Amino acid sequence: MMRTPRYHQGMLPVIGITARPQNVPTAADEILGHAVTHTYTDSVTRAGGVPVLLPSLDTALIDTLLDHVDGILLTGGGDIDPERYGAERDDSVRMVSPERDDFELALVRKAYERKMPTMAICRGNQVVNVAFGGTLIQDIQSHGGAHGHDIIGAAAYEPHSQVMLEEGSWIASILGAGVHGINSIHHQAVEELGDGLNVVGAAPDGTVEALEHQDRDWDLLSVQWHPEYLGARGHGDSHDLFTAFIESAAKYATNS
Fold first, then answer.
1. Which pTM value belongs to this model?
2. Which of 180, 187, 213, 226 is catalytic?
3. d(CA 104, CA 109)
4. Which position among 122, 187, 212, 239 bears the catalytic label?
5. What angle do CA 208, 213, 219 make, to 5 degrees?
């Protein structure tokens, strides 16, 4: 879909960041709000973008929304309802939001239609897979004996796990092919791949850590780990992912 360019050289790309539904205290008691942690917004601004928060809107509004942003960042959060990928929910599934599932699954498909640069993190990686018909492991530790992927607390900021990035992938062109230190804060992961997706990064136990789309016209950086936390402490080169994403959004802004 073509739109009138809103940018000239030197202007900053606008990045829509998906927010998680969350109850917040107010003068009128607790009410539903829309939350994004500062690590996401800090990472976008540090890389040269302007972050705006995206609540879980009616899907009929997505086209209008996308007319006003240059890139999409899908954030972490609660689990996707297993019914979205044809599975029965087990007891490990938590913090399901039907409204967020509706919005984000449709958002990914619309972003692909427009070839809008998209970065997906943790839950976002899973949303990308499900949006293209893939399935998820509902709980890694009860599936095949894999452990150590749901580390939380201060370790969230540390590279306590590893990923092997495939040579020839976009993400490897940014970070370098081979082994990199990453952090793990998830209990679910990709199982069956969605249509058109490739696994370009995996943990030593085989857990999918990075996806890209086979359509090279769509700039998709989709990772299971949390580069926004690693970047906050200056660990490794994960912040380079945000830089590449913002550069892609800037090109989209001027060319679309």
1. 0.90
2. 226
3. 9
4. 122
5. 115
Dihedral (CA of 165, 168, 172, 176) sign: positive
Domain ranges of the chain: 14-255
User: Looking at domain 14-255, what is its CATH homologous superfamily?
Assistant: Class I glutamine amidotransferase (GATase) domain (3.40.50.880)
| Annotated catalytic residue within 104, 209, 212, 228 | 228
Q: Strand order in 220-223's β-sheet?
A: 50-54, 14-18, 71-74, 118-121, 220-223, 208-213, 197-202, 161-165, 178-182
Query: What is the SS3 assignment for 79?
Result: coil
235 carries an active-site annotation = no
Q: Is 226 among the catalytic positions?
A: yes
pLDDT tens, the chain, 256 aa long: 444 445 545 689 999 999 988 767 666 677 767 778 899 999 999 999 999 999 999 999 999 999 999 999 999 988 888 899 887 878 767 777 899 999 999 999 999 999 999 999 999 999 999 999 999 987 667 665 555 556 666 666 666 788 999 999 999 999 999 999 888 776 778 999 999 999 999 998 888 999 999 999 999 999 999 898 777 676 667 889 999 999 999 999 998 7
